[in-house]
Amino acid sequence: MERAPEEPAPAAAARPEEADIALELLVHGVGGTTPQDMLGDPRTERITGDDTAAVFRRADDVDAESRPDDYRDRPVPEAYVWSNLTSGNGARALWLLLLPFMVVNLAHWMRPSVRGRVRTVRLYGLLVRLAGLSLTVLLVAAACEVALDLAAWQCAGTQACAERHSWLGFLSPEVSNAGWWSLPGRRLALAALVPLALTGLLWYLSHRTWSAYESQEPLTRGREPEEETDRTALGRPGFWYGRRLVARLRAAHTSAGLLTVAAAAGLPAARFDHETGGPATLDALGRLLEASLLIAAAVVVWVVCRRGRSEHRLDRRLDDHLVRRLPLVSLALLALTLLYAAWQRPEWTSSGRLPGDATFGALAFVQGLLVIVLGVIAHALHRTHPDPRAAMGGLGGPAVAMLACALGGVMSGGVSQRVADWLDGTRASIPGPPVLLTWQASVIPPLLVLVLLLCGWLAWRTMRLARAELATVERDYRSEPHDSTRSRRIARTRAMATLTDRGPLLVAVVSTATLLLGAGALAGALTTDETPAEATEPAHAFVQGAAETAQALGSWLIGLGFILFVTWGRRAYKDASARRTIGILWDVGTFWPRAAHPFAPPCYAERAVPDLTWRMATWTRATGGRLVLSGHSQGSVLAAAAAWQLKPSVRKRVALLTYGSPLERLYGRWFPAHFGPAALSALHHDVDCWRNLHRPTDPIGGPVLLPGACGPEVDRDALKDPLAYGRTELHPLPAPILGHSDYQADPAFAEERERLLTRLRPGLPGPRGQDGSGRSSA
């Protein structure tokens, strides 16, 4: 059911200082749920919001503000449902293809916490943006490799290959009915429509998702005397509104894609004109084309380097006309380039490969160099303000940037290898993809062996930890009859939950190995032509055979991985469980705004955080009531971000209840500049009170671990899971191991919620601590 939002009751709004009504605003976590499940009632009504994200109440509670006496002993429950921001539509599964862009965007937010060093911080962000730009060029270059080089240049230019694919007949000069399109330059111009369409699709998705998800303006608040805006960046007015930066980066990346297509289609023709000494007019046009592409590329890099995010104010302005019209200028330059390439050159024939080796080699070298320099800067920032809890000693950002580049390489190499196999198979009638892509395929088998060895070591360590946990389980349930099977299951669940804490080790090993193996692949590709083919030494023959075997196996694995990747996305069209799984990936990966790459999947928090902030600010202002912000899992991260956006005077009337929360365990370690100990301590002091619930069996949530006396004030002792070891009067059937779900089933949840509400209730003291000290345990 749905009804229009109602104005708050006049009685409550008239004298808010006497209002005694409480609101419990529930925010669900990863995977999503329904308002009926969150509120425990099949009859719910939407009171504000739309089909994408909305606030729901039970039908009996819609007019709660008009009768506050009915809610003096209990809060009014509300549910904020945001699952449609990340999952539910099968088409969004195709966003998996944008995974490298999402990963490099995460690297921007993983910088170490630092005090001062503003220029160094800006340099860190600049390098990540450049790495993102290289990924866009890599993706479009891969499309050019497939369409222009493999299909239009190699296969259409070879009689044996063209005869096997009749749809290429009109492009091939080797068949009897060769037509107007059979000239090499015209084939390249026609094939350029494929990467052009890909670039246009990326621009369209970025523009459409911005309008649908991220165009909501945050709540505008006036400055208060006690307000401190530099405690954490998440509390700044413009943090959740990156319209200007996204528009600037979208223009630059779209232009970079168009210029990449222009270079792939026009530079071979210009090189032919230079080498053959053709007409002076074409030679001059070719040189003018090369200069224009170089100048346009320099402008694109300048736009990316020019400015980062504006967070200290709500920036509603747009950039100047040069930036906004850069894609149109690049599109016009591409059109002129295609006309130049299509000019008649009867002597020009296609043979060998297009100059893709130099392009992919330069991209691989630039990406490796950017990651290395980024690591040096991240290490320097970490040393200025060390955080022992930061993942990989502050090097999480460079490591994740390396993984993003590796994902881009695997995807580009995978699609190139598969298309080459489809066009030619094992006949070897065409040269195939660039040598570097073949060498990059050879690093996949050793990398997989390394990952399997690491997973085996983690499994062995988890088994040892499970055996060690048996004693702890028996001590926790020592009053219960012993059951070895039950104890082993609980101990194994606790041990498996600790694997989350091994994530930094896995990322460190994989990223380091990828960097070293990628450097080896680049060196191998550069020296391939220098290796004498007639060398017959046993050692050389063994190395050459091993390399060829690794290349063949790696090529097959890359292709298989790419096919599985696309198949998984396609499966989400029909399978709701697959859509749910993919939605969980986006819930974790797309929380952050698009600061490094405009083609990354959209940031749902730029809609969810303003939603929550507006709801809390308007409700407390209208009713003067108390509010408990209750967040589970990823919902606790949204709750914390929304609380930081409130005025300090409003924030002090809000209590925070988190459970299964990754605030410290994942976000605090991987994003120390925004969720480190200083930021979480500031959140504890900014809200009126905060309690956090966690379980040892939870693989995602954990304690907040604030330093000093703040820690016990926030974290409750770990909850028992399961609630009952065996059959009891309260649990006549075996109690399940809940892990990350259903925290409300534990009596501690209702107890902590009541303590928070009691502390917020005006005129009443907070509950005494269990030690009788009088300090509120809330």
From TrEMBL:
<feature type="transmembrane region" description="Helical">
    <location>
        <begin position="284"/>
        <end position="305"/>
    </location>
</feature>
<dbReference type="InterPro" id="IPR029058">
    <property type="entry name" value="AB_hydrolase_fold"/>
</dbReference>
<feature type="transmembrane region" description="Helical">
    <location>
        <begin position="553"/>
        <end position="570"/>
    </location>
</feature>
<feature type="transmembrane region" description="Helical">
    <location>
        <begin position="251"/>
        <end position="272"/>
    </location>
</feature>
<feature type="transmembrane region" description="Helical">
    <location>
        <begin position="505"/>
        <end position="526"/>
    </location>
</feature>
<feature type="transmembrane region" description="Helical">
    <location>
        <begin position="393"/>
        <end position="416"/>
    </location>
</feature>
<feature type="transmembrane region" description="Helical">
    <location>
        <begin position="123"/>
        <end position="143"/>
    </location>
</feature>
<feature type="transmembrane region" description="Helical">
    <location>
        <begin position="436"/>
        <end position="460"/>
    </location>
</feature>
<keyword id="KW-0472">Membrane</keyword>
<feature type="transmembrane region" description="Helical">
    <location>
        <begin position="93"/>
        <end position="111"/>
    </location>
</feature>
<feature type="transmembrane region" description="Helical">
    <location>
        <begin position="358"/>
        <end position="381"/>
    </location>
</feature>
<feature type="region of interest" description="Disordered">
    <location>
        <begin position="756"/>
        <end position="778"/>
    </location>
</feature>
<keyword id="KW-0812">Transmembrane</keyword>
<keyword id="KW-1133">Transmembrane helix</keyword>
<protein>
    <recommendedName>
        <fullName>Integral membrane protein</fullName>
    </recommendedName>
</protein>
<feature type="transmembrane region" description="Helical">
    <location>
        <begin position="188"/>
        <end position="205"/>
    </location>
</feature>
<feature type="transmembrane region" description="Helical">
    <location>
        <begin position="326"/>
        <end position="343"/>
    </location>
</feature>
